TrEMBL record:
InterPro entries: Glyco_hydro_beta-prop_sf, Mannoside_phosphorylase
Extent of the signal sequence: none
GO molecular function list: glycosyltransferase activity
Any matching Pfam family: Glyco_hydro_130
Protein name: Beta-1,4-mannooligosaccharide/beta-1, 4-mannosyl-N-acetylglucosamine phosphorylase
Keyword line: Glycosyltransferase, Transferase
UniProt organism field: Streptohalobacillus salinus
SUPFAM superfamilies cross-referenced by the UniProt entry: Arabinanase/levansucrase/invertase (SSF75005)
Family that this chain belongs to: Belongs to the glycosyl hydrolase 130 family.
Amino acid sequence: MSKVKIIADAIKNIPWEDKPSGYHAPVWRHSQNPIIDRNPAKGISRIFNSAVVSYGETFIGVFRAETIDGRPHLHLGYSDDALSWSIEEVGIDFVDETGKAFQPNYAYDPRLLKIEDTYYIIWCTDFYGASIGVAKTTDFKTFVRLENPFLPFNRNGVLFPRKINGNYVMLSRPSDSGHTPFGDIFLSESPDLVYWGKHRHVMSKGGYGWWQNVKIGGGPAPIETSEGWLMFYHGVTGTCNGFVYSMGAVLLDLDNPSIVKYRSKNFVLTPEESYETTGFVDNVIFPCATLHDGETGKIAIYYGAADTRVGLAYTTVDEIVNYVKATSETVADDATVGRM
Ligand code: BMA
C-alpha cells in the first residue's frame, strides 16, 4: 500500500510491470513498447499523443490519428487490457448543442477525462488558428462539442478531473501559429465550461536544467494526491537538429493549483529508445494520459513517441512524489499565485 494517497477510484486491471531491477530512474518503460506502432488501422499511418480512460471493466481511448492524407483526426479505440487497442477506421463525429454537425478541421493531442458522470475530450483544434476544443459525451456514441473556450493561439488544454472551489479549471499554453519557440503553463476557471476567466500563471519554462528551457505544456489530466495535484508535463529544449521533448513532473497546490509546491529539476523520461528517437519527428516524448489506481498507487503513463507511436511507462505515486520533492527547484515565480 502506498503512503502517498491517490484520491481516485481503484482500477483493478490497470496495466502494470514492476520496476526492472537495477533501474534507477523514477519512471520505467513497458517492456513491449511501443504498444501502438505504425499503420495501426486501415487508412491511419500513425497514432501518437493520445488519451485513455477506464470504462467499466474495459478501456476506451481517444487517439490522435494521422490519416493517410497526413491530417490529424480523433478516432475512438477500445481495449480489454489497455495494451492491445482496436482503433476505429472512421473518426469521431461531433455535433453542437443543437445537434448540428460541428466537425473540427483538424484535431490533435487529445486529453480525455471524467468529471462527475460526463467524459470530456479536450484537444488542439482549428479556430482561425490553433486553439482549444472541448466536447462531452456520456456514452461514447454522441459527442457534443462546446463553444471554443479560448482565443487563438493556444495549445495543450488540460482539464482538472473535478471542480476546484466550485469552478472547472483548465490548464493551457498560449502559443503562436507555428512551432511556438516559447511558452509557460497558465490556468483559467469557469463555472459552466462556457465563460472562462480568473486566468493565472502556473509555471515557467526554464530552471537550472536545459531540458525545459524553450517551452513547457501540460500533459495528462492532473492526478489528485494527498500531497497535491500531481501533473506530468512536457518540457522542450532546442538543438541544432530541432526540438527535443522530455517529460517532467510537478506537484500543484490542491486548493490553489496555480501555486507550484514542488517541481523536479530533472526530466523523468527523455527520448532514449529507438521508437522515441526516430520517427516522423525525432526525439519526442509527449504524455497525454494516465491510468492510476486509487488503491495501490500504481500509475501507467501513455505518451506519444516521435510523433509516430504510443508508448507506455510506469511509476508509483510514492516513487514519483518522493522524487519530485527530493529534486525540487523553484523556477521564477512558480510558487506564487501567478496574478502579476
Ligand atoms: C507540438 C505538437 C505535438 C507534437 C510536437 C512535436 O507542437 O504539435 O503534437 O508532438 O509538437 O512535434
